[in-house]
């Protein structure tokens, strides 16, 4: 169990990935973004997650450079993730998209590169490109995002290298139990996007009650629940006090009863698209 912000889980290829990081979905290019990344690094975050479609890789790269300089750490101490967008899927176009992301971030390599969605008829060729990048040492780990069990089975059947990560929508109203069990069985680490359900859970009475017991916010309760369930998590925030608060979850532990109460909120509710009906 993660004891601090820099604690890591070991992926099936031996690469260590922080349990906790910063997501930057819907954060536009500009000073606010640069500052959020820099602030997160300053407060001990070592994992930053972006994607080509967020159109903010340049700002993320700048925040990384400024953060590294300010804190006096090396690039190697950070874990940087990006993702190939649906329109760029396919073998050659994925290789090109990767280079574009790398150039925008101004990095020599990525720590993790993901297929953003399972685009039918394309994700296998896209995966071959990720395997090529991995073998060439341009990325330390490769994985997928928004893959259901049937997508994973289909991919693993033909893949030379198994995905190391599956990043999916995961929060108390979408607990993804079967998917997590399958990933565990396959040695694929589950990672949560939108862990706070885009803020929609923050007034939930059950979660508030649990939070009051530990003198913690609802956000902190949810993020702690992620970690205790063995799920890597990357909450998004641009405000310094939230960035600090989100990460302040290593000084309490939810009981089995708390976890069961949180699990009981599951009603298969998605805030994002259904991975089986991706038409973008």
From TrEMBL:
MF (Gene Ontology): oxidoreductase activity
Residues binding substrate: 116
One Pfam entry name: Aldo_ket_red
Domain of life per record: Bacteria
Key words, A-Z: Oxidoreductase
Annotated NADP-dependent oxidoreductase domain residues: 31-265
Active site (record annotation): 54
InterPro entries: AKR, AKR5G, Aldo/ket_reductase_CS, NAD(P)_OxRdtase_dom_sf, NADP_OxRdtase_dom
Annotated TM spans: none
PANTHER family according to UniProt: 2,5-DIKETO-D-GLUCONIC ACID REDUCTASE
Protein name stated in the entry: Aldo/keto reductase
Protein species of origin: Aneurinibacillus migulanus
Species classification: Bacteria, Bacillati, Bacillota, Bacilli, Bacillales
